[in-house]
Write a sequence for this structure.
């Protein structure tokens, strides 16, 4: 039997109330609170990043194939290219690609009785998904496509409709400006439905319509498009899949851009959230470790007489240190288990009941997002245990400095 572990177990079973017992309980509570905060912080940051990415991907996909533009952040250029079914099938066959949707993007002005609003209209074909999800909510009716002429249905964002005081079924005038034409082109359309993502970058400046309407306005051919929206099964493969599409199936001046290249500032901001999460983890980890180290130091001082007795009986310093480290590890593990349970429980409550509300205009969502990742939770618990154990080696070294004679006299 491990003698150090046996003694530590006997100490833990001692029900006598002492000052060090009280300090260890406080350290356990502090560790539990630290782990709880760390789990909540990492779950909220992970959930926030996941939700924002979903909102971007649902509207723009993970990558876009278009004619080359010197400025990728300008979204899609004006140069059309013919829709090539063979190329679309090839792109769909690439491993990791989930869907490919052709579209046209064109600036326009929405003219209503209450005012004007500049937007970019995204012309889409039948089959473009218009069903609600966690990332986007549709209301009203989808675009009704006919075989003969383009549809006069229009899907606007809820934010645009609110600013212009529009409702589903209202008629609006859409004004298009073409550089080669002196006078603008005006079309009367009906607001068939609305969408809402909660992201100002999408909701404020975009709408959906029949792709044939934009072909007619641009005087393009029956198969001309602006770009292909490519969706992937795993967003982390966007750069790899985009490079494969470009190398295997595209010829200059065709190019492919990831959504991260089109909206770099949004994804840079999301990456910055990792820094915030890391800062919280470090602070809480240090708090937990310092609390446990302080508690262990007090515990050793209170057990000075016991240390002297064990030394007098011939027990080595290393074995005596292990007694206190085993005991402190049990206390730390107890705090970690309670903290893990509390953190997961609070995250679950937020997932189920959305207790914490947010200002959607600032945070892009109405409730605090939470994404439980069991790997991250395990790493938080394991990292806390390892860091606390490492820090607790410092007060445990005091055992070597305790002299037998003085320890036996200590009261």
């Amino acid at each position: 039997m491990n003698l150090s572990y046996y003694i530590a177990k006997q100490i833990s079973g001692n029900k006598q109330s002492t000052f060090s017992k009280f300090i260890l309980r406080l350290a356990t509570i502090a560790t539990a609170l630290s782990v709880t905060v760390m789990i909540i912080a990492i779950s909220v940051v992970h959930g926030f990043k996941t939700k924002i990415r979903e909102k971007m991907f649902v509207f723009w996909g993970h990558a876009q194939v278009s004619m080359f533009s010197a400025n990728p952040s300008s979204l899609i250029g004006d140069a059309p290219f013919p829709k090539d079914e063979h190329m679309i099938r090839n792109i769909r066959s690439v491993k990791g690609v989930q869907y490919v949707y052709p579209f046209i993007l064109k600036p326009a002005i929405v003219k209503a009785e209450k005012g004007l609003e500049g937007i970019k209209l995204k012309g889409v074909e039948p089959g473009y998904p218009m069903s609600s999800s966690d990332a986007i909510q549709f209301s009203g009716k989808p675009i009704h496509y006919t075989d003969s002429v383009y549809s006069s249905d229009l899907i606007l964002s809820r934010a645009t409709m609110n600013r212009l005081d529009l409702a589903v079924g209202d008629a609006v005038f859409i004004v298009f400006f073409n550089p080669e034409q002196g006078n603008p082109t005006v079309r009367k359309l009906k607001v068939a439905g609305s969408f809402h993502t909660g992201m100002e970058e999408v909701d404020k400046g975009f709408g959906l319509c029949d792709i044939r309407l934009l072909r007619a306005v641009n005087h393009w051919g029956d198969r001309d498009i602006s770009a292909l929206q490519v969706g992937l099964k795993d967003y982390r493969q966007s750069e790899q899949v985009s490079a494969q599409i470009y190398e295997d199936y595209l010829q200059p001046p065709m190019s492919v851009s990831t959504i991260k290249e089109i909206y770099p500032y949004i994804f840079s901001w999301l990456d910055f959230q990792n820094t915030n999460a890391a800062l919280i983890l470090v602070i809480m980890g240090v708090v937990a470790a310092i609390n446990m180290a302080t508690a262990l130091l007090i515990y050793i001082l209170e057990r000075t007489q016991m240390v002297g007795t064990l030394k007098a009986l011939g027990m080595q310093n290393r074995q005596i240190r292990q007694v206190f480290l085993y005991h402190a590890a049990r206390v730390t593990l107890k705090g970690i288990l309670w903290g893990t349970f509390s953190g997961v429980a609070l995250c679950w409550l937020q997932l189920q009941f959305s207790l914490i509300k947010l200002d959607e205009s600032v945070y892009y969502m109405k409730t605090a997002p939470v994404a439980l990742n069991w790997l991250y939770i395990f790493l938080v618990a394991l990292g806390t245990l390892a860091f606390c154990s490492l820090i607790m080696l410092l007060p445990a070294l005091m055992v070597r400095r305790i002299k037998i004679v003085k320890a036996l006299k200590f009261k």
In short: Residues 3-55+269-409 form one domain. The radius of gyration is 32 Å. Residues 198 and 340 are 32 Å apart (CA to CA). The chain has a mean pLDDT of 87.
